[in-house]
Amino acid sequence: MQFSEDTNRILEFLDYTSSGTLRKRNDLGTILEVLASRNKPELANELIFYGSALWASYKIFRRDKTSQSTQKIKDELENLFNKLLELLNEIVAFFEDEELIQRFQKVYLKPDIGSRMNLIDLSYDLNELKKVQLKLKGR
């Protein structure tokens, strides 16, 4: 997918602020481009919010697997995975390129561990975007 100049600028800025650590840069660009072209800022913000929440919960889970709250964190991770899948399905419905649809279905929407790990990687990128949003809002 060809990105607009605005999307390219966002990705370049995220590359800069994340020190080049984005994991799913092109997919993030595709999502941002499609949501911008469809005028869906609320869907973009929702995806960013839940992606950032998934990343934070995943980090907590990885750090402390012995905690008594482990089951609560697992439950929250499951809820967040389901919410992200719901949002991504909504976004993929906007795609017009059949190859792109199939790729997102294969990479993110399959019910397997590989897709979950890809969702975590995408969530890392969404968290980087959330950090920029918060900084711009002065928080």
Name some characteristics of this structure.
mainly alpha; 139 residues
Give the helix tally: 6
Structural class: mainly alpha
Give the topology string: H per helix, E per strand. HHHHHH
Radius of gyration based on Cα positions: 15 Å
> How many strands, what sense, and barrel or not for the largest sheet?
none
Strand content: under 5%
Count the strands?
A: 0
Overall pLDDT level: 94
Helix residue percentage:
over 70%
Uncertain regions spanning at least 5 consecutive residues: none
Shape: globular
What is the CA-CA span between the terminal residues?
A: 33 Å
In short:
The protein has 139 residues and is an all-alpha fold.
Question: How would you describe the overall organization of this protein?
Answer:
With 139 residues, the chain is mostly helical. Helices cover 76% and strands 0% of the residues. The chain contains 6 helices and no strands. The N and C termini lie far apart (33 Å). The model has no long low-confidence stretch (mean pLDDT 94).
